[in-house]
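Hi C.,

You asked whether I'd gotten around to modeling the 372-residue construct. I have! Everything is below, sequence then structure, no commentary in between.
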Amino acid sequence: MRFDAVELRSLELPLVRPFRTSFGTETVREALVVRVLGDDGEGYGECVAGSEPLYSSEFVASSWLVMRDHLVPALLAAGSTRADSVKDVLAGFSGHRMAKAALEMAVLDAELRSRCESLQELLGGTGESVTPGVSVGITTDVVELLDVVGRYLEEGYQRVKLKIEPGFDLEPVAAVRQLVGDGFMLQVDANTAYTRSDFDLLARLDEFGLLLLEQPLDEEDILGHAELARRLATPICLDESVLSVRSAATAIELGACSVVNIKAGRVGGYLEARRVHDLCRGAGVPVWCGGMLETGLGRAANLALATLPGFALPGDISATSRYFHEDITERFELVGGRIGVPKGPGLGVTVDVGTLERLTRRHEIVHARQAG
């Protein structure tokens, strides 16, 4: 497809409740939405970078800048472009996987819409719905945590992930395990908050029969994760450490993980996410779909991804009401503990242009003539 322009929008979506991790607390989701435009059609994408460089070195302002000044001009200058060639078109620019993923996602949406094919079909997924989990942030105390988890249980979530950090780990995990019972799927996510000196403490998590322990150490400490994996019965899952098929293969070969959290934005797009899935499936390593507080655009794409056969564990996709009072697409609802997968062409959702414009805080269009 040939595109004449790319539109960038920065939005602000207030969260239903503050979401705290070891990186900090978010009360508003600053979302970066891109739209590719051309005579052949249009398509939407979402950049999952956060407002600040905490989870990742990428953040909204940096993603906007690199897209506007470098990635978008290169994409427009390439002329006719296929979604599976976007990675090569942008390969000369180092890093910025989340920004690149957003552009690939928009091209995918446009391309698939033009031939009336869904993202699920392209990726090779099957099924009408997925079983989601819910991610619970760090709370002020255990009493509040139990109240929050209890409400999610009432809503029908069948897997809970608790964010932990030093000083908020063993006691809250023990309390939630008692609340949900021994057979319930419970996992914890440290977001790199611990070091090798915490191995003895982390080993005590084995007492709680957890589904997995996600990213306890620094993202570059692959050998540390491998050592920890040998000491714990709880499976180690990597998130921030997995940036590509290559890094996933290295981590698996070194024994640093036995589960992988796949986030399409983190690995550079949904096509690379499928490659990571295929690698893990071939190695017998289960995967699940992580979340980044996406709008309905990213949520729709994640649902499609999560229907691939290697996604053996519930992901952090959740219903719209978990995060937002309003969204820029139709809402996703939890029905019978499951969420339906969009079946329409492209991402399978329709953008509410009025809401999109109302929530927009910054807007810019880069035209092909500017890129030239």
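If it helps when you're writing up: Residues 60-77 form the longest helix (18 residues).

Thanks,
B.
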